[in-house]
Design a protein that fits this description.
By secondary structure, this protein is an alpha/beta fold. The chain contains 8 helices and 4 strands.
Length: 181
């Protein structure tokens, strides 16, 4: 199966993405054909186009039809200032009030920025903390736009990003050049 990797991203894969894009394939079609995540293709196509209008029109890959959308950000899991009780209370509120979607707008983990809790001083430990301890409420999906702390971790550790996406209620919308309209 074709898979874009950090090692070969600068060669044949970019050429294929560019070729498909200029042949009129949609970003979703390119993702399907090449088995890539939306943000991977969007990042490269956005660099080809270099247009804020293009990014605003194509960056957001999820349309929310829910009556309610809860937005959170800056949970900084792994920081000495994290507040898991508050995060759980927020999700309990969402569940009790019939929210189906939570939009996390960046910095879900602390990464290596200080102050980091000693038990979460590695990328891996923070990602496992996210996967295992972040609230999971029946019927609620959390959509992530990854912030600078998250980018620092996931841009160099693709396998960690893949692990996060294995959790059924987590969806990554993008990072670096992600926009919310």
């Amino acid at each position: 199966m074709f898979r874009l990797s950090r090692e070969n991203f600068l060669t044949e894969d970019k050429r294929l993405i560019e070729q498909f894009y200029y042949e009129g394939y949609s970003i979703h079609d390119i993702c399907s054909v090449l088995n890539l995540e939306y943000y991977e293709v969007l990042y490269y196509v956005g660099n080809i186009i270099k247009s804020q209008d293009f990014m605003r029109n194509h960056a957001f890959c999820k349309e929310f039809y829910d009556d309610k959308l809860l937005a959170v950000s800056d949970t900084h899991l792994g920081s000495k200032f994290e507040n898991m009780d508050y995060i759980h209370e927020t999700y309990q509120y969402a569940y009790n009030n019939y929210f189906k979607s939570v939009l996390h707008l960046g910095d879900v983990i602390q990464s290596t920025y200080k102050p980091v809790l000693k038990r979460y001083n590695t990328f891996e430990s923070q990602v496992f903390h996210l996967i295992n301890d972040y609230p999971k409420m029946n019927g609620i999906t959390t959509y992530f736009v990854l912030g600078n702390h998250d980018f620092h971790t996931f841009s160099n550790n693709r396998e960690l990003l893949d692990m996060v996406q294995e959790r059924e209620d987590f969806k990554i919308l993008g990072f670096s050049k992600a926009y919310i309209l």
